[in-house]
């Protein structure tokens, strides 16, 4: 088992990475506030992992509430969040109850926000079961639900007590989701870790073949990057925004098509290529750099062109982005491969041209 | 103008108390993050104060979004909260937008939770226009909405940047709401400030006659008590729970009758008498003490008996209270007049007897 730490003073917490961790409740027990837990999962992950996980917790004397949500980004909304509150209140879960998110990014984001809001805050633990959630969304305390007018618009910064990434769960992940997760892995290389980008390029075939050692290495190095950024800037006043490379374009795709049409990682992949193209137009990347960005995503089986929404619609959707400040759109772009910046330097004409070049 | 401070390190903020403060935007400007604000009020307070307040802000060059909610505790729910998000997103309010709550406790609680959750957190300012919100709910960062299974079950601890209590707004307050506010004023005397209780008893007629100086004094001394408690225990790990004297019984009344039937302060008044009666049964208060508690609420025109829900229903509703920890109901009771404690010492039989004696 590999263990990292997210350093946030009194709210610091460990990330355990390894194979078969789900079977060992001993890893979870030290992080509970009482003997009451609520395990929240969805209709896809539940049938695979819920029963043995809950049985193991009950064997240790815990009282467990089970809540199963509908699957998918389309359900990352208030009515589904309210199913969690209904379940917790129906079972009289009190303030000492620890919520455990068992699933991918959508489950983790929703359970995190439910934990932040239930009785004004209860502890929670992330047990991410997808590559995307293991390398990105389970770490760092960003929680949210969507609003019809924008993705992740309603949420909280709320840190888990523990992240438990069981590499074995990646064995049941559909190919398309594995690839979507790789988009966020690649992102760390692009924004701040050139040696990691080199490593990914050298090991991409092993990752696609689900080599356990390669996956554990990718998860660890991704989480290490994420933990460093989050420790330096928990509430995204600065550097943390660079983790959103490709996300402003990507969110426009997700919102424009309706949530759930493209996977988040797929939208981020296309968005990263668009950001690279825009960076080239600002004179920061070479043609070869852009091709490198395009090529690694293509090799990972990810989209390298945006959805054909039309540039006007992209610009309209991007204007709703959370990174808009005082009316100005800020974008995460690349000064070089391995070095992201947050900038308002791109003109609307440049952004439009980059969108048109990549759709 | 009287000014107090809530001492919470980097998140400390002032409370300004005075007459006519609403007309002076200069008090608000230093606390804004940008020139964008959203003023959120309801259909009762809006017609009285919204137009001149917004006009004054616009004169200072601010861009103002106006959102008017339906009035009342019955609307302290998700659909109404979502009206705030709809308004903010529809007007493209970004992360630098400051939300201003103009209204009573329900508006303040909802705007606070909206501010905590919108784009994972934007600044907010409380402009309480009722006695109850000026002396209690606007200070201390408790924000929430109700759930059909319990009051204030979904929310956040989220502090405002500024509280502006304009005593002039109490001039338009219905008598019933003024009296409901007095329940929380009396509460500070009962739980921790015997000299203040003596002062209230001596000045109750002036308060009921809306004497401006007496009201300002009551608001200041109440806020001073609240600020001290919040500074010592922001997230209610201990002492802060004593502010909930009468609230566990009171919430049962509010939930049992349906939100909005009794005013919150009315339910708290009856609840405080029930808590006093229960304290007597534990041997902590004398018959005369209980009579003193009953008498001051009665003089303030407040209910001194609970709603006739039946003891079983009270106990059932109280089991949902947020102060339940690991299955045990904790109550705020009085060791003496002026000294509250949080205790699990009361047996169900005692609680039942106290309920039956007070309904």
TrEMBL record, chains A, B:
Q: Which reaction does it catalyse?
A: 7-phospho-2-dehydro-3-deoxy-D-arabino-heptonate = 3-dehydroquinate + phosphate
User: What cofactor is this protein dependent on?
Assistant: Co(2+); Zn(2+); NAD(+)
Q: Record-annotated residues binding Zn(2+)?
A: 184, 247, 264
Q: Name one GO cellular component term.
A: cytoplasm
Q: Where is the 3-dehydroquinate synthase C-terminal domain?
A: 181-324
3-dehydroquinate synthase N-terminal domain location is: 67-179
Q: What is its main location?
A: cytoplasm
BP GO annotations: amino acid biosynthetic process; aromatic amino acid family biosynthetic process; chorismate biosynthetic process
One GO molecular function term of this record is: metal ion binding
EC number from the UniProt entry: 4.2.3.4
Q: Pfam families of this UniProt entry?
A: DHQ_synthase, DHQS_C
Note on cofactor: Binds 1 divalent metal cation per subunit. Can use either Co(2+) or Zn(2+).
The answer to keyword Amino-acid biosynthesis applying to this record is: yes
Q: Which residues bind NAD(+)?
A: 71-76, 105-109, 129-130, 142, 151, 169-172
Q: Does the keyword Cytoplasm apply?
A: yes
Q: Where in the cell is it found?
A: Cytoplasm
Its pathway is: Metabolic intermediate biosynthesis; chorismate biosynthesis; chorismate from D-erythrose 4-phosphate and phosphoenolpyruvate: step 2/7
Q: Which UniProt keywords apply?
A: Amino-acid biosynthesis, Aromatic amino acid biosynthesis, Cobalt, Cytoplasm, Lyase, Metal-binding, NAD, Nucleotide-binding, Zinc
Similarity annotation: Belongs to the sugar phosphate cyclases superfamily. Dehydroquinate synthase family.
PANTHER family reported for this sequence: 3-DEHYDROQUINATE SYNTHASE, 3-DEHYDROQUINATE SYNTHASE, CHLOROPLASTIC
Q: What does this protein do?
A: Catalyzes the conversion of 3-deoxy-D-arabino-heptulosonate 7-phosphate (DAHP) to dehydroquinate (DHQ).
> Know the name of this protein?
3-dehydroquinate synthase
Classification of source organism:
Bacteria, Pseudomonadati, Pseudomonadota, Betaproteobacteria, Rhodocyclales
């Amino acid at each position: 088992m590999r263990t990292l730490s997210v350093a946030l003073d009194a709210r610091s917490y460990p990330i355990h990475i390894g194979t078969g961790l789900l079977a060992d409740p001993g890893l979870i027990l030290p992080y509970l506030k009482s003997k009451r837990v609520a395990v929240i999962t969805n209709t896809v992950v539940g049938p695979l992992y819920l029963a043995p996980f809950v049985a193991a917790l009950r064997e240790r004397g815990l009282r467990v509430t089970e809540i199963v949500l509908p699957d998918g980004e389309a359900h990352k909304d208030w009515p589904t969040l309210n199913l969690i509150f209904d379940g917790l209140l129906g079972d009289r879960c009190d303030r000492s109850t620890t919520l455990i998110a068992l699933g991918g990014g959508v489950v983790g984001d929703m359970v995190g926000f439910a934990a932040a809001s239930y009785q004004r805050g209860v502890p929670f633990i992330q047990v991410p079961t997808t590559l995307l959630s293991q390398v990105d969304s389970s770490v760092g305390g960003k929680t949210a639900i969507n609003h019809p007018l924008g993705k992740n618009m309603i949420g909280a910064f709320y840190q888990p007590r523990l992240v438990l990434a069981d590499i074995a769960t990646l064995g049941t992940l559909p190919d398309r989701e594995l690839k979507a997760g790789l988009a966020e892995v690649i992102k760390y290389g692009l924004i701040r870790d050139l040696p990691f980008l080199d490593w990914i390029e050298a090991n991409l075939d092993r990752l696609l073949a689900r080599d356990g050692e390669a996956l554990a290495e990718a998860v660890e190095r991704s989480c290490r990057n994420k933990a460093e950024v989050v420790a330096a800037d928990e509430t995204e006043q600065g550097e943390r925004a660079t983790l959103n490379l490709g996300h402003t374009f990507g969110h426009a795709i997700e919102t424009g098509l309706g949530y759930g049409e493209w996977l988040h990682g797929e939208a981020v992949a296309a968005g990263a290529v668009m950001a690279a193209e825009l960076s080239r137009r600002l004179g920061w990347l070479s043609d070869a750099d852009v091709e490198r960005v395009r090529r690694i995503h293509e090799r990972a089986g990810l989209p390298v062109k945006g959805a054909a929404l039309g540039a006007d619609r992209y610009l309209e959707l991007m204007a709703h982005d959370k990174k808009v400040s005082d009316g100005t759109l800020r974008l995460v772009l690349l000064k070089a491969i391995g070095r992201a910046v947050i900038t308002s330097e791109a003109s609307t004409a440049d952004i439009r041209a980059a969108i048109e070049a990549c759709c």
